[in-house]
Specification:
By secondary structure, this protein is mostly helical. The protein is built from 7 helices and no strands.
Length: about 200
């Protein structure tokens, strides 16, 4: 159990040594790096919350049988957990294009430092503030939907034209079949008449 206590103390000391308070907050630090630092700190806190001592308390019999294997299982579990969380956060960053957004925000903040004008503040009228923020977004969405509707209408028109052309081709084929049928019937009548003439007594 002495080994467990030392490991637990080591895990507890790790997150405290790299807590957010110990990270210097500088205006030049990009928000992307700040986000990565927060993720790292969160993972360290997560490991501290799931300490080795608590892990072994859940698997007492297994730990008593083989402490070394238990330790390896714990280390692998923690490593896979951290990797899984990092992959999930990486996917979220890619799907939301967070790096580009955060870098753009940094750029806006840097450019705003050169302007002496005060930043935007709410007017005190929620309806006006909401309209000023939502109107551009809704207009953009409306424009996007209109483009999609026009594109879909064009596709529908192409399909309708194709259906009309197909119907005309079917009608032409039906007419050709009818003409061939009539010709075959006429030929059949002529053959019957010819046979009747040939079979008639002299």
């Amino acid at each position: 159990m002495a080994e467990v206590s030392r490991d637990n103390e080591t895990v507890k000391k790790g997150p405290e040594a790299s807590s957010p308070e110990s990270v210097p907050v500088d205006a030049t630090v990009s928000r992307v790096k700040l986000l990565d630092t927060i993720v790292d700190t969160f993972l360290q806190k997560l490991v501290a919350a799931r300490s080795y001592e608590r892990f072994t308390s859940c698997y007492k019999h297994f730990y008593q049988l083989n402490p070394e294997v238990t330790r390896r299982v714990y280390d692998k579990f923690v490593a896979q957990l951290q990797t899984s969380i990092r992959e999930e956060i990486s996917e979220i960053k890619q799907e939301g294009n967070l790096e580009a957004v955060l870098n753009s925000l940094d750029k806006i903040v840097e450019e705003g430092k050169d302007h002496g004008e005060p930043a935007w503040r709410p007017s005190g009228i929620p309806e006006m503030d909401l309209c000023s923020v939502m109107a551009p977004y809704l207009l953009k969405q409306q424009d996007t939907l209109c483009r999609r509707v026009r594109k879909q209408e064009a596709k529908n028109q192409e399909l309708a034209d194709a259906v009309v052309v197909g119907r005309r081709q079917v009608e032409e084929l039906e007419q050709q079949v009818q003409v061939l049928q009539q010709a075959w019937q006429a030929l059949h009548r002529e053959q019957r008449e010819l046979l009747s003439v040939l079979r008639a007594p002299e």
